[in-house]
Amino acid sequence: MEQIKIGIVCYPTFGGSGVVATELGKALAQEGHQVHFITYSQPSRLDFLNENVFYHEVEFRSYPLFEYPPYELALASKMVGVAMNEKLDLLHVHYAIPHASAAYMAKQILKTQGISMPVVTTLHGTDITLVGKDASYEPVVTFSINQSDGVTAVSEDLKRETLEHFNITNPIEVIPNFIDLEKFKKQKKDHFKRAICPEGEMLIVHTSNFRKVKRIGDVIQTFYNIQKTIPAKLLMIGDGPERVGAEQQCRDLGICNNIRFLGKLEAVEEVLSVADLFLMPSEKESFGLAALEAMACEVPVISSNAGGIPELAIQGVTGFMSDVGDIDDMTRKALFILDKNNLPKFKENALNRAKEFDITRILPRYVEYYGKIIEKTHVSAFR
Ligand code: GMT
Hints:
Blueprint: E1 5-9, H1 16-30, E2 34-39, E3 53-57, H2 71-86, E4 90-94, H3 96-112, E5 119-123, H4 126-129, H5 138-147, E6 150-153, H6 156-165, E7 173-174, H7 190-196, E8 202-207, H8 216-229, E9 232-237, H9 243-253, E10 259-263, H10 268-272, E11 277-280, H11 289-296, E12 301-304, E13 319-322, H12 327-338, H13 343-355, H14 359-381
Parallel strand pairs: 1-2, 1-4, 2-3, 4-5, 5-6, 6-7, 8-9, 8-11, 9-10, 11-12, 12-13
This protein binds ligand GMT.
């Protein structure tokens, strides 16, 4: 297979889009493609050495005149530099704002140098469902999606929402998120389980960026209801604006001893390895990568039925989905799963479903898509 030189632009933080972009880049590099990450700091999951992986930091200097340093311009300039120096075949930007519009500008600049640079934009969720729809961004988001040479979305639901809210003239290809089952798998961590659950309590886990959309209050309240019936502990992984309120809620409910806030963790899979149940009551979720990570570690999921979650979870098989905010229903279903007679089957089913999203199945779809977009762009450049 011919090597493709790909520039990947993403947010380097713990968010799902950055994780997907980084894991995709790592897998492409392992397949022999050359991957150039272009971002403002080292992506948190870019934790391995490979001769095909390169990292280019976007430096943006401030100046007294700038109340807001123009990151998008610095990013576009960096994309131009990397594309020219490294002779990239394609730019793949994750998250529309501001990556797709910066890519558009880079593409136009490269055109003046006689370089035709295909741009693929992957939509991840909040770039469409929350931020992108906002009137302050909508025209730019619409324009830059339509100007991309290829557009992918991580679920059918996100594609539907994008087409509903934006005037999109480009086809959108759905390529679901994926998981590396070599990394995300149940590990033997019995000592950790014993330390957290010394009396053999059930271990429930939530991971997120603790934003409003994650409905952290529902996680705490559902857990509160569960632990009234069966002994249980809750581990909260991640951090964000809703954490302070959640900690207060724990104090108000008098359940601080049963809940631990672990903050941002690198090795989420180690905690998931000893979990019995994962909670994801989100208001919106284009895909729900955190749920897939849990399932890969054999953890059933209680979630809302929002967005793209039903494309991943299977009702009554990998766990259960409830209407957003229906805490009583989530509690009932959680107790059903946690029944010792039911739990092993749910765990097995969760893993089996996760296997359908193994990176080895999804990676070829991106590679094939890149090939199609590169060919299409070069054919039209010679017309
Ligand atoms: O969930 C977040 O708030 C982070 C956000 C992101 O852009 O990093 O996650 C979105 O992209 C993930 C990866 O594609 C999806 O798994 C998440 O479902 C999606 N989040 C939302 O739609 C709220």
